[in-house]
Amino acid sequence: MNPVALRLLNQQLVSPQFSGPAELVSYMGAMQAQEYRLMRWAVAMRTKKPSAKAFKKAFDSGQIIRLHLMRGTWQLVSVEDYWPLLNLCSSKALAVINGWMSSNKISIPEEEVKRIREILVRTAANQGSVTKEDFVQALAEKDIVMDDHRLSYHIRYAELSGTLCSGDLLPMKATYALTADKVKTHFKMDRDETLAMLARKYFQSRQPATLEDFVWWSGLNINDCRRGIEILGDSLHVETHGRASQRREFYFTNDCRTRGFRKGKYLLIPPYDEYLISYKSRDIVLSPDYSHKAHNNSGIFQPVIAHDGMICGNWTPFKEDLQATFFMGEHVTDLQEEWKRYKIYQLK
Q1: Which of 162, 157, 166, 160 is nearest to 115 (CA)?
Q2: Do 98 and 201 belong together in one domain?
Q3: Whole-angstrom Cα distance, residue 203 to residue 229?
Q4: CB–CB of 304/290 below 8 Å?
Q5: 167 Cβ partners below 8 Å, 6+ apart?
Q6: Helix (H) and strand (E) counts for the chain?
Q7: Residue 224: predicted pLDDT
């Protein structure tokens, strides 16, 4: 088993199978979307022909939705998965957010939540897609002054209640819209169906992966994750991999992609990408000696370079010319082919 090659293939980072962004996001189940500009590249680089226009079309039409979901962080989900995943994950996400508020000594009473939400809803209903600045102005018209952190918590509460979700895509600023205007169909699943769906999408797109990886990524408790795996039954199988002191049980789907890997490929991977953030243990593709080059202990992830799937350097987005540094291995092949792919995508 070559776990690095298998992850590249099943994460669609080499030999991608999908043409459109919405198909890709649906396949992945959910994708980290912390960095507003580079979440687009995270999706596009996994499609056959990366296109900024295609991403914007899918986003603006509501085929792709961005909201705070798993672990209380930003995610992209497909429209058909929006309600099932929100119903499954919202209680855990709320617990995480309430924990952050408590640690920051912030308390928001229920009457305030109701009053502010009415203003947020009215603003979004009147304007369609609104920015946080639009919310600030609407609150000011009601003589309400609120710091940015407190307003962010109100917006997250509204997202996790299914009231607000992402609006239209702007170059730099996130927007919000009424979910009722953006998500036209309410797809329904019971809890077991949703657990099975999430487990299937996770392992098909991140394999090989462990139970602990799935628990970390989903933000669910271990019993829920085990239940999802249990429901999938014989469609998953387990293989043990690693040295004696580090042997782990990895799950695979029976239709795991194994063909299409080619050596010599470089990838310019954006921060918070699923290639790293999907897993609790990242040592398969990132040497622990260099983990600080990819992320810190506070959960801040950097843009990284992968060569044949191994994280070996850093790069700087949004520059005219490629700026790259390597911290592992010798690299004589330049990155211009991948840089050109990234730059062409930006210009489309």
Answers
A1: 157
A2: no
A3: 9
A4: no
A5: 124, 128, 129, 130, 175, 176, 177, 182
A6: 15, 11
A7: 98
Domain count, the chain: 3
Is residue 253 within 8 A of residue 196, CB to CB? The reply is no
Residue 241 sits in a domain of what CATH number?
1.10.10.10
Q: Which residue's structure tokens are 């009147």?
A: 126
Q: Phi then psi for 24, rounded to 5 degrees?
A: -65, -45
Strand 74-78 relative to strand 31-32, pairing: antiparallel
pLDDT digits (tens, 9 = 90+) for 106-133: 999 999 999 999 999 999 999 999 999 9
Task: Report how far apart the first and last C-alpha atoms of the chain are (Å, whole number).
Answer: 38
Domain that holds residue 147: 16-182
Q: What is the DSSP letter of 270?
A: P
- C-alpha 275/C-alpha 271 separation (Å) is 10
Which backbone phi and psi does 322 adopt, to 5 degrees? Answer: -65, 130
In the sheet that 324-326 helps form, which strands lie side by side, from edge to edge? 266-269, 304-307, 310-315, 324-326
* Domain assignment of residue 25, yes or no: yes
